[in-house]
Give the backbone structure.
Amino acid sequence: MRNKAFILIATAICLALVAGCATTMKPIPAQDLNQKLQSGAIVQKINNFEVILDTSASMYDPHKWSHYGYTDKLTTTKLEYAQSLARLFNDSIPNMKLTAGLRDFTGERWLRRDYTNLWYGMAPYVKEDLGKAIYAVNISGVDSPLDLAIDAATMDLKLLAGKSAVIILSDGVVMTKAVASAQAMKAAMKENICIYTVQIGNDPEGKALLQKVVKAGDCGAYVTGEEVSSAAGMAAFVEKVFSGTPPPPPPAQAPPAVVPPVVVPPPEVPKKLEAIYFDFDKYVVRPEYGDTLKRNAEWLQANKDYDIRIEGNCDERGTSEYNMALGQRRADAAAEHLMDLGIGKDRIRGVSNGEKNPACTEHSAVCWTQNRRADFVVLKRQPRN
C-alpha cells in the first residue's frame, strides 16, 4: 500500500476532475445462456447472490487491456477492469428469479470512513439496474477491508431463503483478516453459501489469499480475470455459480409385462336339473316341489341356448303299459308347471321311461320312492325350421 497521505491527495484530485477515476469501457457482448436454461441443460441452484467489488487504493493501479480495439499501450485501472468483468458477469446471467446485491469495500475515503457500502439490493434481481450500479461505483479509499465486506454480506444473505453465492472481484492485496470472515460466513450459513473469487491482476500473495477465502467457504471457485474476460469464459463461470448438474434422466421403464387375458370358462352346464318325486300311482305335483320347479325355470330363463326334456319315471309295480302311461302323465304335469313359470312350450319335451330307468333297484318301499320321479335333462337347443 502507498503512503496514506499520498493516496488521499490523489483520490481528492481524481474526484474533483472526473467525479471518480472510472471510465466507461466498451462492454463485451455476453453469451446467451437462456436456451440452455430453457432446455434443461443447466438447472438453477442459486436463489441469491452478492457481488463484492474491491475499490481500495491498489485497484487504481494500471491494468493493461487489449480487447475490442484496446492495445497494450492503452491502459485502464484494475477497478475499471473489474467493473467490466462484473458487467459481463451480470450480462451473462440467464433469466432466473434471484435476489441480488452489490457491495464494495475500501478503507478510509476522502472525508469519509465508510469501509463497505451496499450499492444495489438486497433486492429482486433486475439486470439493467445492477449493470448501472456496477459502473456507479467510483470512490476509492486506502485500506483493503475485505473482511468487513464479507461480514456485511453475511448479514445481507443469511436471512434469505434458499442458497446463496458471493462473488468477490479483487486483487487480493493486503487482506489478512478476510479468511477468518469467510470462515465465519460459512459457519453462519453452512451449506447455503458458496464463495467465488475473481483475481484482478496477478499478485502471488493476492492469489494465495483469495484461494484461501474460497477454501474457507468449502464450495465455490477461484478464477483469474483473464479466464473470465471472454464471453465463453464468463459463461462457463456463470454456469458454475448459478447452475447445478441436471438431474439424470429417469430410468427407462421396462415394457409392461404381457399378462395373458384371463379366460373365464363358461359355467359348467349340468346334465340334469333338480328332480321332483310323486306319490304312489299319482301324477299330481306335490306342493313342496314348487320351489324346485321355480329354480329349474329360472335356470332355463338364464340359459336360453338350452331346452329341457322331462322324463317321467315309475316304480316296478304295475304293468309296463300302465307305467308308460303314468310316466307320461308325470312328465306332462311337470311341463305344465314350467310353462306356468314362463318357459316356452317349444323348449320343453315330455317323455316316459315307465319303469325302465330306476334310480334304485332294490325291491323295497324306500327304493320305490326314489323311482317315482320326473327327471329334467338339459339339451342343447337345436335350430328350429
Observations:
- Confidence is low (pLDDT under 50) at residues 1-24, 65-73.
- Residues 275 and 375 are 5 Å apart (CA to CA).
- The domain at 13-244 is CATH 3.40.50.410 (Rossmann fold).
- DSSP finds eleven helices and 14 strands in the chain.
